[in-house]
């Protein structure tokens, strides 16, 4: 199995700063985006991405290309760090406190429909069970193949499809008004 | 590809065939073309959900600071043999100076008794057997 990162990882592990820069350039934005989607918190997402790379630097000197690609391993690390943070949030959360993400309501007064939609989508995503959210983030946002996403979640492709379908059904229900608006816009028909 | 599998895939991956499994993508597109009317509503709804999800772009802040912090923690090159040998030589030289200086300071100081023994060592032996005459 060809791993496009293997050589960079080997060199970065030996202290090659150019290889380290290449890995950061290639993967840091994706790690931040993944954590941002999972946690709905920009600062926490950066913390997670930094922690992922701390582990990358620690593992790089002894990294051996094996069963999983380096990118798969990084995504697993990032997802596990996100799960840990979500679990700690649940443990800390006041049961009456409701969602821990930004409520889209404050944006309701803003004129930009796009921002309202984005906030609603973020809120709906944050309400999904974390495995469903992870599946949708990996396939829809990270644009990973079904096989890669299943490997990252350490499940079968069939189980991935089940998570995706359940997640999308829940999102469709939560975002019914947004979906109807988009259908109306696409078809030129009034919303009904 | 049959309708049940098509709908299963549509439900899981959405209306963008690029996200479908590589092994079923072509068959799915062909099936959609062949049954366009029957599948139109499902594809439209799934496409609208795709569009809704994509309307929330990942916040792309400036990652320069984060990149710098991350790179500051990257492994450093191991020192080569030359550098290690230079450090070893410098350490040996320093140790030599310390031993030489300390050795001089802490050597035993000669006492009067030492000098007496030293003088006796070079005196002519005394003839203890002869008697005065």
Question: Overview of this structure, please?
Answer:
The complex is a heterodimer of chains A (192) and B (133). Chain A is mostly helical. In chain A, 71% of the residues lie in helices and 0% in strands. Chain A has helices at residues 6-13, 17-39, 42-59, 70-92, 113-127, 130-141, 146-153, 157-174, 176-187. Chain A is elongated and about 55 Å long. Chain B is mostly helical and 133 residues long. The longest helix of chain B is centred in the C-terminal third of the chain and has 26 residues, at 81-106. The N and C termini of chain B lie far apart (143 Å). The model of chain B has no long low-confidence stretch (mean pLDDT 81). Chains A and B meet through helix 2, helix 3, helix 5, helix 6 and helix 8 of A and helix 1, helix 3 and helix 4 of B.
Topology overview:
The complex is a heterodimer of chains A (about 190) and B (about 130).
Chain A: H1 6-13, H2 17-39, H3 42-59, H4 70-92, H5 113-127, H6 130-141, H7 146-153, H8 157-174, H9 176-187
Helix pairs in contact in A: 1-2, 2-3, 2-4, 2-6, 3-4, 4-7, 6-7, 6-8, 7-8
Chain B: H1 3-13, H2 25-34, H3 36-54, H4 64-72, H5 81-106, H6 112-122
Distance between the termini of chain A: 51 Å
Derived structural class of chain A:
mainly alpha
Shape of chain A: elongated
Low-pLDDT residue spans of chain A = 96-100
Q: Give the helix level of chain B as a range of percent.
A: 55-70%
Number of domains of chain A: 2
Oligomer: heterodimer
Number of helical segments with 4 or more residues of chain B: 6
Q: Got a strand count of chain A? A: 0
Distance between the termini of chain B: 143 Å
Output the CATH class name of the largest domain in chain A. Answer: Mainly Alpha
Largest interface summary: A-B, 58 and 40 residues
Q: What is the typical, i.e. mean, pLDDT of chain A? A: 87
């Amino acid at each position: 199995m060809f791993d496009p990162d293997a050589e960079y990882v080997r060199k970065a592990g030996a202290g090659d700063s150019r290889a380290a820069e290449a890995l950061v350039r290639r993967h840091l934005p994706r790690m931040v985006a993944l954590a941002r989607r999972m946690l709905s918190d920009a600062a926490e997402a950066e913390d997670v991405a930094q922690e992922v790379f701390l582990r990358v630097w620690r593992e790089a000197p002894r990294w051996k290309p094996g069963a999983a690609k380096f990118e798969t391993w990084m995504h697993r690390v990032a997802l596990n760090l996100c799960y840990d943070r979500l679990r700690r949030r649940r443990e800390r959360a006041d049961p009456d406190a409701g969602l821990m993400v930004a409520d889209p309501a404050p944006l309701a007064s803003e004129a930009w429909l796009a921002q309202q939609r984005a906030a609603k989508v973020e809120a709906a995503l944050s309400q999904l069970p974390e495995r469903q959210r992870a599946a949708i983030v990996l396939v829809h946002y990270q644009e990973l193949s079904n096989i890669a996403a299943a490997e990252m979640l350490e499940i079968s492709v069939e189980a991935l499809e089940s998570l995706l379908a359940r997640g999308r059904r829940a999102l469709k229900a939560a975002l019914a008004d947004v979906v109807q608006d988009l259908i109306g816009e696409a078809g030129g028909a009034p919303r009904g | 590809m049959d309708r049940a599998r098509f709908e299963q895939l549509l439900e899981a991956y959405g209306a963008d065939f690029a996200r479908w499994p590589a092994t079923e993508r072509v068959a799915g597109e062909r099936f959609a073309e062949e049954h366009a009317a029957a599948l139109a509503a499902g594809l439209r709804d799934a496409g609208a959900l795709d569009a809704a999800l994509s309307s929330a772009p990942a916040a792309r802040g400036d990652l320069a600071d984060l990149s710098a912090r991350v790179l500051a923690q990257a492994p450093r090159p191991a020192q080569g043999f030359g550098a290690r040998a230079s450090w070893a030589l410098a350490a040996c030289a320093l140790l030599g100076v310390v031993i030489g200086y300390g050795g001089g300071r802490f050597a035993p100081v000669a006492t009067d008794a030492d000098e007496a023994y030293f003088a006796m060592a070079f005196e002519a032996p005394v003839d203890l057997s002869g008697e005065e005459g």
